[in-house]
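Good morning,

Attaching, inline, the backbone tokens for the sequence recovery test we're adding to the shared suite. The designed sequence is right after.
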């Protein structure tokens, strides 16, 4: 990256870091069950709730407790279960049309990151009906209060229940873009670990490594605060101590609860401190080839950390010491290598591949431009890369 663009990126990031205490960040009110969510809706005088979920969540009965609680309190509801992985603009518009036709006045998302992102985007379109989703891409382009928004995560990964972002895919270009604004932070989040019991191993692995990627990228960036560093460290420790247990025993209640909070803490951390190039490249890959977001993040995390070189050594060394795989006697470079090696080892243990054979060489320059546009100047990464430099990351994960 040339020196003038580097200066612009770092100046942009510095302004945002200085502004963090002044910006209207909020955290959702934590509820312990879907019954609590139904009671909160009753208190808000919600007449008809719009439940955003997917076919898998429905088939596993994970919405049954919510619909029963709404029935008991005589709150009507409509269900939208057509959410797809990596939700598209067309899906958002389809869901918004049903929201309007059903006369709903609140939104509750039940599922992983995709239903929650879809629910946020629907809320944004309800709030700003004359503004397209593409026009909302970027930072602070919603600017209007959404209908009451509830998030019920059924995976421990994205932390979407606490973030100000919704990631949507353009149907025509396959480009993923992010809408970032404070009204997108859910008003309520239901953290009920029982909804995550029995998750398939692949989903447990991918979403767990997604949470780790959020925490690590938030921690090693240049826009951290005391609180985001604390939350990120807590998340990394919880992943280290609990993800393998969840993977080995899908019904381990203690490990499931801890992983749910790992994802939540990581979400709080990256909402303020942002992520890095692992996410920028992962978004372009999942948007182009329909790959799961958590899977792409897991694969990209160690190779991206390696690419930062010594710019990330000090902070990665701290994380290595926090989880007990390095000591104060170890040099920063050695401790950082221990942490990166641990992420590789976690991927291998969890059955996550080293790369993707779907990647086509001719697609790489275009995807790298998408990643460059997403990451720069917003992401306060340890080391800045332009599109040409980002291309190297795609080659590292191409099988």
């Amino acid at each position: 990256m040339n020196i003038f663009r580097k200066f612009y990126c770092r100046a942009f990031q510095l302004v945002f870091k200085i502004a963090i205490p002044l910006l209207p960040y909020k955290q959702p009110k934590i509820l312990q069950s879907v019954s609590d969510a139904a009671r909160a809706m009753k208190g808000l005088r919600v007449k008809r709730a719009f439940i955003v979920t997917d076919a898998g969540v429905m088939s596993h009965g994970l919405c049954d407790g919510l619909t029963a609680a709404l029935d008991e309190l005589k709150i009507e509801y409509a269900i939208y279960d057509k959410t797809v992985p990596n939700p598209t603009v067309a899906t958002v518009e389809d869901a918004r049309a049903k929201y309007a036709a059903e006369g709903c006045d609140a939104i509750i998302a039940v599922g992983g990151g995709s239903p929650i992102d879809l629910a946020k985007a629907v809320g944004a379109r309800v709030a700003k009906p004359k503004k397209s989703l593409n026009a909302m891409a970027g930072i602070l382009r919603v600017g209007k209060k959404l209908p009451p928004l509830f998030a019920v995560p059924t995976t421990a990964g994205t932390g979407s229940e606490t973030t100000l972002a919704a990631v949507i895919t353009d149907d025509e270009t396959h480009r993923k873009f992010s809408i970032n604004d404070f009204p997108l932070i859910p008003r309520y989040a239901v953290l009920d670990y029982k909804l995550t019991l029995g998750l398939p191993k692949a989903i447990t692995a991918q979403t767990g490594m997604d949470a780790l990627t959020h925490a690590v990228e938030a921690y090693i960036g240049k826009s951290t605060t005391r609180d985001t560093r604390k939350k990120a460290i807590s998340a990394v420790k919880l992943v280290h101590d609990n993800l393998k247990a969840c993977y080995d025993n899908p019904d381990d209640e203690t490990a499931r609860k801890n992983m749910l909070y790992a994802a939540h803490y990581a979400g709080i951390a990256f909402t303020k401190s942002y992520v890095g190039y692992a996410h920028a490249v992962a978004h372009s890959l999942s948007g182009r080839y329909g790959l799961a977001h958590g899977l792409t993040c897991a694969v990209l995390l160690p190779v991206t950390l390696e690419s930062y070189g010594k710019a990330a050594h000090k902070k990665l060394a701290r994380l290595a010491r926090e989880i007990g795989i390095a000591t104060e006697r170890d040099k920063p470079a050695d401790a950082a290598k221990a942490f990166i090696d641990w992420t590789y080892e976690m991927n291998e243990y969890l059955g996550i591949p080293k790369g993707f054979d779907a990647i086509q060489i001719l697609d790489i320059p275009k995807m790298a431009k998408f990643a460059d546009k997403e990451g720069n100047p917003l992401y306060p990464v340890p080391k800045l890369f332009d599109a040409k430099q980002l291309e190297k990351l795609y080659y590292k994960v191409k099988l």
